[in-house]
Amino acid sequence: MRFTTGTLRVEPDRKHVVLPRLGRLKLHESARKLARRLEAGTARILSATVRRDGGRWHVAFCVEVERAVRTPARPNSTVGVDVGIRHLAVLSTGALVPNPRHLDGAARRMRRLARRLSRRAGPDRRADRRASNRWGRAQAALGRAHSRVANLRRDGLHKLTTRLTREYATVVTEDLNVAGMLRNRRLARHIADAGFAQLRRQLQYKSEWTGGRLVVADRWYPSSKTCSGCGAVKAKLPLSERTYTCTTCGLVLDRDLNAARNLAALAHEATDARSGRESQNGRGADRKTCLGGLVAVKRQPGTASAGQTGTVPPQGGTSTRMLTKAS
Length: 327
Ligand SMILES: [Zn+2]
Prior knowledge:
The chain is of the alpha+beta class and 327 residues long. The chain contains 6 helices and 14 strands. Helix 3 runs parallel beside helix 5 (187-210). Zinc ion is lined by residues 227, 229-230, 232, 246, 248-249, 251.
């Protein structure tokens, strides 16, 4: 349900919001970040959307924000990011970004609840059978566990992307692995793919805020199979092999770190191509991986100005959405 007219405000105590028809609602999380912006006059509420998800009620405010122009802390730096399952990400600097705390426990709980659900009598249209109450409860519990896993992971990704775009001028990441996604229906794969998409989307708008650049590698670029030392490409590299061992130059490196380094190297090739120099592309004999496949996204600092338009901007516009949750 979406409200665009009427009273939309955050109470001075920052723990309540006022919405049309629903009145004063208590928030589970403090709305202090939004309230601070509203008080400073750098934000204006355009609309509020109320929805129920994972057994909780959420209210999301669409806000027009005047944002201070920032610049990355290290203006000439590049970082490659490899998103994973066992770790949230591996950076080309060698830094390993661990999964959010409690994520493994939450994922285990989710799998257990999924098994429980499969043992309950669900609805069967052909047998004209309605779902049992126990099935309904198991279903709800699984839904809650699922959103907890998603929330934990999204929170971790937000912290990571904020850190990356504030520090590095160029961030290189991979495109969504569409081919792998269609073939593999396993849960872990599904979560990782959701991570890819979120990471990319967050990096895109956050690099806009900081005036940085996001480079997305072509989805066919063999970041895992390429040697970051000599550029040799392996024909095959099973997922179970966690260490990259190059038969050409003898490099031995963590699989994900090797991929992250290849991604970081792509940024230089993209820069060379743009400055008109013929880049000697040693890596990627496959034609699909050539520079034409690179999507270099040049970004300017955000220049959203408040109070000029009364309409809700389309997603990806110059204005920014800030979300705050309530239950
Ligand atoms: Zn090598």
